[in-house]
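Q: I have 228 residues here and want to know how they pack in 3D. Can you give me a structure?
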Amino acid sequence: MGTSTARRAPTTRLWRQAKVTTVRYFSPENPHSIEAREVVARYVAAFAAGLDQESGGVLAAFRLTRRIARKLGQFCQAKAPEFSVTSELSRPRSEAPLAAAHMIASTWLEADGGLEAAALRPALVQELAEVIQQRYEPSRAVKKFLAAALYHRLVFDLGEPLEGAAAGWRHLVDGLAGIEKEIVNAAKAQGSTVPPPEDWQGLEGWLWVTQALKEMLEQFSMDNSTKK
C-alpha cells in the first residue's frame, strides 16, 4: 500500500476535520462511532475547499486522472491491445500481467509528474493488471479505475493519520478495506444513463469520464453522507 510516502496535507479547518474523523474511524476505543463513508466525505470536502472553483475546482485537480482514464478506456476497446508485446516476458505466467502493467503505466505517466501522478500510479497499475488478465467492458474498467484513483489519493494525503491511529497492521488493513469499499460502491452507484463513448480519446470520451468522476464525487457530499 505504501502509506509511508504520504505527503503532509494542508492545515485548514476542513483538513483538520478530515484528519480528526480519520483518527476516530481507526480508533480502537470507538470502532463504530465513525463510518468509512464519513472519512471519504470529509476528505473530499477538504480537498475541494482549497481549490479555485472558477478554474474547475475538484474536477480540474483530477485532470491527469481523467486523461489516463480515457487512455484506459481506449486500451480496453482496442482490437490489438498494446500489452501483447509483453507476451514473451521471461517471467512466471502469474507475474507477467503485473510486469506489463508497470511497463505501460511508466509510458503513460511521467516519472516526475507531481502529486497527482504519484498517487495515480498504483491505481493505474492495479487496474491495468486486472484488465490484462481478464478483458472486460471499457466503461467498467474506467469506473473501477476512477474509484481506485480516489482511494489512493486519499491514502496518499491522509497516510500519517491513518498509520498513527490504527492499532496495528491488521486494524489498518481492515479499516482501509472499508474505505475502499465505500468508494467502489459510489462508482457503481453512478446514475448516469449516458452510454459509453465510441471514441474514448475524443471529446465524447472526455465528457463521459468527467461526468463519471463528478457523479462519484457527488456521492460523498456531506449532505448525502449524513443520509446514509
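Q: Anything worth noting?
A: The chain has eleven helices and no strands. The first helix runs from residue 13 to 26.
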